Write a sequence for this structure.
């Protein structure tokens, strides 16, 4: 079985991390992105690897070079920009974040999951549960669900290892599938016993739950994410200007 780094080379890890920051609005249109030298130092790679990562983004029309100046985020009218601190959907994680994959298995779909993935009742699905902590109270517990039919094409989804670039990027890279749009909804409820243990919460504890479905162009659901956030944490931020 191939190693993770053979599936996602270092240059793709870098380009997907930058793409993730751009999609989240951390790097707005017109903002300068890190240079080849800065990326090489940050990721401890050779300059050609950093250059290949930036060139990948150029070919996708995400960044553009300005002679004698640097590389900047391209202005792409209509391109999706996610809310600041939006729940992750298979995203690339920052290097300083602790990500623990708690479980990865082929299981029988719970009824709500089968319904969300538009699968028959009792279908097999891939389940990946992970705990993320940035070391400053930013913990989140997330479970991703995929159609079990993808197990053969995307075997790394069944391994309890962190996937550089995120699960969705890996799935896209090995299947050729692409996300066209996503839908999310947010609600609050009491934490389950597993969630309290994972997030270190007392009983009872309210949690914010964000559910995202990622759709292909034909409306098929490629991935279902449920992200559970602890209380007393700001998640969404918007600014309004007159």
């Amino acid at each position: 079985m191939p190693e993770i780094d053979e599936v996602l080379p270092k240059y793709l890890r870098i380009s997907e991390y930058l793409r993730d920051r751009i999609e989240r609005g951390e790097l707005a249109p017109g903002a300068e992105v890190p240079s080849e030298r800065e990326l090489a130092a940050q990721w401890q790679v050779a300059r050609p690897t950093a250059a290949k990562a930036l060139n990948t983004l150029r070919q996708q029309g995400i960044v553009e070079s300005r002679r004698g100046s640097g590389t900047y985020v391209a202005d792409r009218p209509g391109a999706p920009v996610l809310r600041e601190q939006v729940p992750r959907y298979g995203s690339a994680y920052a290097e300083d974040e602790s990500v623990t994959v708690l479980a990865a298995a082929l299981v029988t779909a719970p009824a709500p999951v089968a319904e969300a993935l538009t699968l028959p009742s009792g279908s097999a699905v891939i389940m990946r549960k992970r705990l993320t902590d940035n070391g400053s109270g930013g913990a989140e517990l997330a479970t991703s669900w995929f159609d079990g039919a993808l197990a053969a094409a995307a075997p790394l989804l069944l391994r309890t290892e962190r996937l550089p670039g995120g699960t969705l990027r890996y799935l896209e890279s090995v299947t050729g599938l692409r996300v066209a749009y996503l839908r999310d909804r947010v609600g609050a409820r009491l934490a389950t016993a597993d969630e309290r243990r994972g997030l270190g919460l007392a009983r009872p504890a309210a949690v914010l739950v964000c559910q995202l479905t990622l759709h292909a162009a034909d409306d098929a659901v490629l991935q279902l994410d449920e992200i559970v956030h602890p209380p007393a944490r700001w998640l969404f931020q918007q600014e309004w200007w007159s």
